[in-house]
Amino acid sequence: MKALNWFLNLAILGLFIGVAAAKQAPVAEARARLGTGGRAVVNHVNEMGDEVFKLISVEYLVDAQPIFQKADPGELAALKEIEVFNDNIGPGTHKLSVQMVYQGRPVWIFSYVEGYKFKVSSSYDFTAEQGKTVNVRVVGFDKGGWLSKLEDRPAIKYDFAVEDQSSTATPSS
Questions:
Q1: How far apart are the C-alpha atoms of 32 and 42, rounded to whole Å?
Q2: What's the pLDDT score for residue 52?
């Protein structure tokens, strides 16, 4: 009987490990398919604040391939900036797609806002060049004020810069 319980526990543990690995596999495969030539660095920046909106999930794709996914409201709300991608990328035009989901937070008499979720999707085309590093800062921010409709306030903007890879290279130890 002990042997059977041990075997069942081992089988269940194997299933959990397999599921966790399967969730990470698409991201690793996508990174391998993106190629070489240039380099892309993508940073997620949260300028939304947490007074009215709380970031609960983000998803980043390059050329329709997932590069970063996170659905941890506690951790995401605390982050101000995080690098979500830093890897080689083939020369040419690429599409960066982003989806951020915010949850409303109760403010003053507007307690009903807590039940609302706001999905913001955006995409940005950028060109990677041989020997260059493309830096993209993806900024989630509140584009409205107190007089704006809640659904119009969450937004995404992009800050973009290109530099020679020689100026971004890290010295080897």
A1: 16
A2: 74
CATH class of 35-168: mainly beta
Structure tokens at 8: 């069942």
What number of other Cβ atoms are within 10 A of residue 148's Cβ? 11
Spatial CB neighbours of 149, under 8 Å, sequence gap ≥ 6: none
Q: Which two tokens stand for residue 4?
A: 């059977």
- DSSP 8-state symbol, 173: -
Whole-angstrom Cα distance, residue 16 to residue 104? Answer: 33
Question: How far apart are the C-alpha atoms of 59 and 67, rounded to whole Å?
Answer: 8
Phi, psi of 17, deg, nearest 5: -65, -40
pLDDT-wise least confident of 68-77, 96-105, 147-156: 147-156
Picking from 172, 163, 159, the residue whose alpha carbon sits closest to that of residue 38 is 163
Taking alpha carbons only, the member of 105, 121, 119, 132 closest to residue 38 is 132
pLDDT in tens, 115-144: 788 899 999 999 999 999 999 999 999 887
Domain boundary assignment for the chain? 1-33, 35-168
CA 86 from centroid of its chain's CA atoms: 12
Contacts for 148 with CB less than 8 Å, ≥ 6 apart: none
